[in-house]
Design brief:
There is one protein chain. With 194 residues, the chain is an alpha+beta fold. 48% of the residues lie in helices and 22% in strands. The protein contains eight helices and seven strands, in the order H-H-H-H-E-H-H-H-E-H-E-E-E-E-E. Strands 2-1-7-6-5-4-3 form a seven-stranded mixed β-sheet. A hairpin with a 5-residue loop joins strand 3 and strand 4. It starts with a helix and ends in a 6-residue tail after the last strand. The N terminus is likely disordered.
Length: 194
């Protein structure tokens, strides 16, 4: 009888111990998962990449990145500041006459390339909402001075915003409000010409 009670006691203790271990394991797992989630949250709070960082990470801006490097503008758009860039995608550069990009990338044409690229940059932060509000406040037309020194014109045409360069070329916005640590990028389908 004593042996049978002891055997049942051992079985009961074993089952209780297994239950406690399972409970501890569940609590530990929940606790570990919470720590991992907190660590992930902390690590995802990293600062946004710069305008150049975003362009480098986007294959659709590879021609722009090459041009920025050639014009030695990477550091300027990587630095602190508040910039709004109307970034031509690769298709926009492809619209230029044959040989234009290759010609602009030559060292002897660096000044011209710099003028073209800085014509796509406005000092300050302009979201799409800011531009639309400025258009409403100014009767449907709004101009902004670029870092190159010339102005670009924004017009509301129907329900969309269209940019016009100094040569009268209409430029459409493809994507807006791509946020960077030092400004915003708005992708455009045509290279603006000063």
């Amino acid at each position: 009888m004593i042996k049978s009670i002891s055997l049942w006691s051992l079985v009961a203790l074993f089952l209780m111990a297994c239950g406690e271990t399972k409970e501890k394991k569940e609590n530990t797992t929940e606790s570990d998962e919470m720590e991992v989630a907190e660590a992930y949250t902390e690590n995802t709070d990293e600062e946004l990449p710069t305008i150049v960082g975003i362009a480098v990470d986007n294959a659709d801006f590879s021609t722009l990145v090459t041009a920025l490097k050639s014009a030695d503008l990477v550091d300027a758009l990587n630095g602190e500041g508040e910039f709004t860039v109307f970034a031509p995608n690769n298709a926009a550069f492809d619209k230029l006459p044959d040989g234009t990009v290759a010609e602009l990338l030559k060292p002897e044409n660096r000044e011209t390339l710099t003028a073209v690229l800085t014509y796509h940059v406005v000092a300050g932060l302009y979201t799409a909402g800011d531009v639309v509000q400025a258009l409403k406040d100014n009767g449907g037309t709004f101009t902004a001075e670029t870092l190159q020194g010339s102005r670009i014109t924004f017009k509301m045409e129907g329900d969309k915003v269209v940019l016009y360069d100094n040569k009268g070329n209409a430029v459409n916005l493809i994507a807006t409000d791509i946020e960077a640590s030092n400004g915003y990028i708005h992708s455009v389908d045509t290279v603006l010409m000063p």
